[in-house]
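Below: protein 1.
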Amino acid sequence: MSETVKEQYSTSDKLNIRISLHSKYSTNKQGFGNWIFSNYRIQEGMKVLELGCGTGDMWRGNGDTVKRCGELVLSDFSEGMLETAKGNLKDFPEITYRCIDIQDIPYPDKSFDVVIANMMLYHVPDLAKGLSEVARVLKDSGTFYCATYGENGMMEKVELMFEDFPDSGTRNYTFTLQNGQGTLEKHFREVLKLQYEDALEVTDIEDMIDYIYSLPSWSDIQDMPRDGIREILTRNMQDGVLRLPKDYGMFVAKGPKRSK
C-alpha cells in the first residue's frame, strides 16, 4: 500500500468521519454495510477470511453469522484498524485477528470457503497479484465478495463543483463497478455484479466539509480556507439540501482459476 493510504488508515478517525456522513444522509436507510452483509451466503461451519476489515463494524449486530462460522479471520494491513475492530467485537472471542497484506496471504491453498474484500481493492499496488492470492486461498466451491464504488457517484459530482482545482479530478479508478468485472474474470469463472441504489441529501454542510478533509486526495481543495469550501458547496445546495448521487455495489465471484 502507498504511504498516503497507510497514513489515512493507520487509525479509524478519518474513516469514521466518512462512515458518519453516509449514515446520516443516505436516502436508502438499509445502509450499504447492511446491504453488503445481506448478500453473503455463509453456511454452518464455513471458514471465512475478510481482508481490509477496517473497524469490523459490519460484523457487529451479526452475531448469529459470526457463531455460524467454523473459523472467522478478520484482517487489515493497519494494526490501528485491527485494534479498533477488536474493541468493537470484544463480545466475540472466537474471531481471529491478523495483520495481512492481500498480496501475500499467509494461508495454504484452498483454506477458505469465503473471502471478503470490501472498498479496498483499488488501494492494492499489484491488484493482479492480490486477486491471484485470493483465488489461491479459496476452495474450489468458494465465493469472493468485494464491494466497491463506481465512476458516476458523489465524488465525481463534487469534483465538478471544484473543477478549477488541479487535484480535484485525481480519482482512483483501479477497481470500480465499471471495470471490476473484467478484472475479476481473469481470476474467477463466474462474476456477478450487484448495484446498490442510494443517494446523499446533506443538510449540514459542515459534515460535508469534514468529509472532504478526511479524504486521502484532493490536497489543493484541502488547502482552501474552510470558508471557501463552504461557499462553493452552499452555492450548489437547493432548498437547503446538497444532493449527491451514489454509485456503489459489489461483485460476487465464484470458481477460482488456478495457476498452472
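Below: protein 2.
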Amino acid sequence: MPPALSVSPGSQTMLDRSAETAFAAVLGAHQLRAYISDNPHYCGSFAEPERACARGMFHLIDEGSCVVDFARGAGSIDLNSGDLVMFPHGSAHTLRSPPDGNAGPAANRFTSILCGEFEFATGRRNPILDALPDWIVVREEESHQQFRHLARLMAHEARQESFGRQLVLDKLADALFVMALRHHIASATERRGLIAALIDPRMARVLEAMHAEPGRQWTVAMLAELAHQSRTAFAQHFNEVLGVSPYQYLTEWRMAEALRLLADPKSSAATIAEKLGYQTEAAFRRAFKKIHGYGPGRARRAARSAQIGAVPNDEAAKA
C-alpha cells in the first residue's frame, strides 16, 4: 500500500453527475455503518496506544490538542480542536499529549476526543477501502463550512445526556465519514482505484452505466463505446485505474448488490440471479461464493438475524 495522503488545500476537483451517481451507488451497495465508540477526556499527560483493528477508525478532536504517532516509524502529526484523522484500514497508532511548549505544561491541559469506528456490510474487500490510503487527515481550517458545522454538532451532542444521544452520534458519524471521503477525493494530491475513476469523466460514465444496470450483458465493446475509446485502449485503461478487468469489476459489483438484495426476505435467490444477469441460480451461487467466500443461504440467515457483516463459520460457508 502506498504512503498515506494528508488532505491539503489546493485545487478542488469537481465531480460530474456520473461520478456523483457512481459514488452514491457504491456507498449504498456496500452499506456503510459508522458509530462513535468512545469519548475520552484527558486532564494532563496521556498516551493511548490503538492496536490494529479489522474495522476502520477515526478520531475527531473536540477540545485541546494531541499528537498522533503512526505505526512502523511512519512519523507523527499534531492535531487541534476540530481536526479529524481517519484510519480506513484500521492501522495501529498512538494518541498522546503534546510535549510542554508555548501552550504551557502538558499537566495543565484538557483534551477531549470523539473516537469512532466504521465498517461495511460487504467486508473489507470493496472499492472504497481499496482506494484509500493508510490514513487521512482533515484540518478544520482546510475543511468546508459543512464539515466544521457537523464536527461542532457532534461535539455538542457528545456533551449532552439527551435521549437517543448514541443513535444521533452514530447517524452523524455516517455523515462525517462521507464528508471526509468527499474532502479527500477533492483535495488529495494522488488518487488511485475508485477515486481515480470518479474524477475521470470517461470512467465515471462507464461505472454509472454498470451500476445502474448490473444485470445487463455488458461487453467490453459496449463499455468502450461509452468511454469513447477503442476496446483495447479501454480495457487497458480500466485495468490501470481500477486494478481489475471490466468483467471482474462487474462481477464484484453484482455480488455487492446481491448481498444487499438478499437482506430482503421477499427476494428469492432465483429472482436475484435473474436480476443480476445470471442464466441459472447455480451460476449465481457459484459467483457469490467465489467473491464472498460463503453462499447466499448464509447471507440470508445472517441478514435475518441482523448480522449480515458477520464472518461465516466453516460449516455455514458450505451453504
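Confidence is low (pLDDT under 50) at residues 1-12, 307-319.
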